[in-house]
């Protein structure tokens, strides 16, 4: 069996498969990883990331996260990093922290009880 193609961020093709609610990463035409999401107006929750074991450690996961977060930024969407891989990646890349969703109540406590 031959070795899968080596992946680097320049050779990983990442696309949003909106019908499947996931980003797909392909290397040499082969599906190498996916990032499942739930999308609502103004918010994308990334819930699960999976990289084929043959491509682990080759930059596929990072390419998925970077591409999807760049698209979220372009769309003006906040990001909820439910997936531990996304949460960890964002914590190591501060330039993307501004995308993180933070719940802020719009209601003020009126003091009535």
UniProtKB/TrEMBL annotation:
* Residue numbers spanned by region Disordered: 1-20
Q: Which CDD domains match?
A: NAT_SF
Q: Which residues form the signal peptide?
A: none
Q: Describe the location of the N-acetyltransferase domain by residue ranges.
A: 1-106, 15-101
Q: What is this protein called?
A: N-acetyltransferase
């Amino acid at each position: 069996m031959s070795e899968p193609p080596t992946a680097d961020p320049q050779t990983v093709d990442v696309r949003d498969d909106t019908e499947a609610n996931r980003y797909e990463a392909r290397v040499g035409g082969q599906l190498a990883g996916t990032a499942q999401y739930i999308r609502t107006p103004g918010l994308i929750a990334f819930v699960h990331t999976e990289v084929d074991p043959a491509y682990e450690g080759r930059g596929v996961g990072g390419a998925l996260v970077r591409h999807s977060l760049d698209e979220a930024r372009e769309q003006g969407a906040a990001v909820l990093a439910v997936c531990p891989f996304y949460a960890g990646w964002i914590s190591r890349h501060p330039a993307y922290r501004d995308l993180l969703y933070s719940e802020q109540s719009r209601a003020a406590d009126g003091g009535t009880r």
